[in-house]
C-alpha cells in the first residue's frame, strides 16, 4: 500500500482499537494522532486543553496531521474533532484514504461511560454532550470519508477485515 489510511469518527467509535488490527492486516504502522500530539506537546490531552484551550489542541493536531502525512504510509487513528478544521479535511482528502467508523449514539454512550481523559465530556451530562457533538459532526464525517463502516454490534477484527478488503 502506498497511501496512508486515516480512521475518523466520534470518540469511542473504535479508531484506537481497529487501527492496530488494520495495521497488522496491511503490514504498515499504526499511529494514534492524539498520542502523537501528546508526545510532541509533552503534556496530556487535559493539560493541553487547560493550558491552550481547544484551539491550541486543534492547532497542534493540524500540525501533527501534516507531519505524519509526509512520512511513509501508515494507519492513523484521528481524534474525533480532526474533521472540524477545513485544512485538516483538505489534508485528509489529498494524502489519506479516509475511513469513517460510524456508531450510533447509544453505542457511543455505552463505550464512553468512563469519560476520564476526555475534556469535551467533562460536563455534568456527558450523554447530552455526546448526542449534541455527534449530531453536529455527522455530516462532516460523512463528507470527509472515502469509506463509511458502521461499527454497531460488530467486533474490531470484523471491522478491520472489512476495511482491509475495501482498500
What does this 3D model show about the protein?
- The chain has 167 residues and is α/β, with parallel strands linked by helices.
- The chain has a single domain (4-158), classed as 3-Layer(aba) Sandwich (Rossmann fold), CATH 3.40.50.
- The protein is 56% helix and 13% strand.
- It contains 7 helices and 5 strands, in the order βαβααβαβααβα.
- It has a 5-stranded parallel beta sheet with strand order 2-3-1-4-5, sandwiched between helices.
- Helix 2 packs across helix 3.
- The chain is globular, with a radius of gyration of 15 Å.
- The model has no long low-confidence stretch (mean pLDDT 87).
Number of helices: 7
The overall pLDDT average reads 87
Structural class: alpha/beta
**Beta-strand percentage range:** 5-15%
Tell me, what's the shape? globular
- N-to-C SSE series? EHEHHEHEHHEH
Strand order of the largest sheet: 2-3-1-4-5
Sheet having the most strands: 5 strands, parallel
Low-confidence stretches: none
CATH class: Alpha Beta
- What is the CATH superfamily label? P-loop containing nucleotide triphosphate hydrolases
Work out the count of structural domains.
1
How many strand units? 5
CATH topology, anyone? Rossmann fold
> End-to-end distance, in Å?
9 Å
**Alpha-carbon Rg, integer:** 15 Å
Second rung of CATH, namely the architecture: 3-Layer(aba) Sandwich
Amino acid at each position: 500500500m502506498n497511501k496512508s489510511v486515516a480512521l475518523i469518527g466520534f470518540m469511542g467509535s473504535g479508531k484506537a482499537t481497529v487501527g492496530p488490527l488494520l495495521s497488522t492486516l496491511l503490514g504498515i504502522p499504526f499511529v494514534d494522532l492524539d498520542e502523537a500530539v501528546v508526545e510532541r506537546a509533552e503534556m496530556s490531552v487535559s493539560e493541553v486543553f487547560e493550558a491552550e484551550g481547544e484551539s491550541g489542541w486543534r492547532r497542534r493536531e493540524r500540525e501533527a496531521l501534516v507531519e505524519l502525512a509526509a512520512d511513509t504510509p501508515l494507519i492513523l487513528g484521528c481524534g474525533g474533532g480532526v474533521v472540524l478544521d477545513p485544512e485538516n479535511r483538505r489534508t485528509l482528502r489529498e494524502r489519506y484514504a479516509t475511513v469513517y467508523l460510524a456508531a450510533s449514539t447509544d453505542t457511543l454512550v455505552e463505550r464512553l461511560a468512563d469519560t476520564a481523559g476526555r475534556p469535551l465530556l467533562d460536563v455534568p451530562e456527558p450523554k447530552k454532550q455526546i448526542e449534541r457533538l455527534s449530531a453536529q459532526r455527522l455530516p462532516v464525517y460523512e463528507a470527509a470519508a472515502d469509506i463509511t463502516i458502521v461499527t454497531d454490534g460488530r467486533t474490531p477484527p470484523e471491522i478491520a477485515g472489512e476495511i482491509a478488503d475495501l482498500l
